[in-house]
């Protein structure tokens, strides 16, 4: 069953997120899957992620800074 947040936004199921994780090391789909996981776990929109600069990513500390667009 689909879970709708606002009547139109569908939430991914645990099985769907697991399937994306399963593609993370795929030679063809891996990069796309990793981008999708960042979006899933941060709640960012794609255009917000695309505005992130290298200086905004803090891997050792485990966070990134994103600025909302719109």
Report mean pLDDT, rounded to a whole number. 90
Structural class: alpha+beta
How would you sum up the major sheet? 2 strands, antiparallel
β-strand number: 4
Percent helix range: 40-55%
How many helices? The count is 3
Distance between the termini: 31 Å
- The portion of residues forming beta strands comes to 5-15%
Low-confidence stretches: none
Across the major sheet, the strand order is 1-2
Order of helices and strands: EEHHHEE
Query: What's the alpha carbon Rg, rounded to whole Å?
Result: 14 Å
Give descriptors for this structure:
single chain, 70 residues, alpha+beta, two-stranded antiparallel sheet, two-stranded antiparallel ribbon, 4 strands, globular
Secondary structure topology:
Layout (H helix, E strand, L loop, with lengths): L2 E2 L5 E2 L2 H10 L6 H13 L3 H5 L6 E2 L4 E2 L6
Antiparallel strand pairs: 1-2, 3-4
In words, what does this structure look like?
The chain has 70 residues and is α+β, with helices and mostly antiparallel strands. The protein has three helices and four strands. The protein has helices spanning 14-23, 30-42, 46-50, and strands at residues 3-4, 10-11, 57-58, 63-64. It has a two-stranded antiparallel sheet with strand order 1-2. A hairpin with a 4-residue loop joins strand 3 and strand 4 (63-64). Helix 1 (14-23) runs antiparallel to helix 2. The longest helix is centred in the middle third of the chain and has 13 residues, at 30-42. The relative contact order is 0.11.
């Amino acid at each position: 069953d689909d879970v709708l947040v606002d009547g139109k936004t569908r939430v991914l199921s645990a099985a769907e997120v697991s399937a994306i994780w399963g593609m993370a090391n795929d030679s063809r789909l891996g990069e796309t899957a990793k981008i999708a996981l960042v979006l899933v776990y941060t709640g960012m929109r794609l255009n917000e992620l695309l505005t992130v600069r290298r200086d905004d990513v803090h891997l050792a500390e485990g966070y990134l800074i994103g600025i909302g667009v719109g």
